[in-house]
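User: Okay, second chain of the day. Same drill as before: sequence in, structure tokens out.
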Amino acid sequence: IRLQDQFRRAGIANDRIRFLPSLHPKREHLARMAAADVFLDTLTYNGHTTVSDALWAGLPVVTCPGTEWPSRVAASLLTVAGLTDLIAKNLDEYQQLATRLAQNPAQLRRMLHCVQEGRARSPLFDHSGW
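Assistant: Same drill. Structure tokens below.
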């Protein structure tokens, strides 16, 4: 409920937010992720495999790296994927970037395209290269 209040104060309607249980098998999990607009990475301890999953599903990931390695994983993944525009320098920028993507459909579409292009060209998902 507190998260929903935060989103509402930022001008994001509750019907755009979903809290859902885990899914198996993996392809169902990835398909559901692709239905989202944007993935908001957690602070202090970033998503690791979850961020990779989100990028594979074509979902933009907004992150703000911290000072310890667990808080820099998403920024590393985004850098390799060529998506450094999604890395905020501080918490204010993190909130502004997330809000801008949520409130600007044209910018969100451009970023979705960049993520999908990055997935196709990035060494992050070059399975044969590994």
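The chain is about 50% helix and 5% strand.

User: Thanks, on to the next one.
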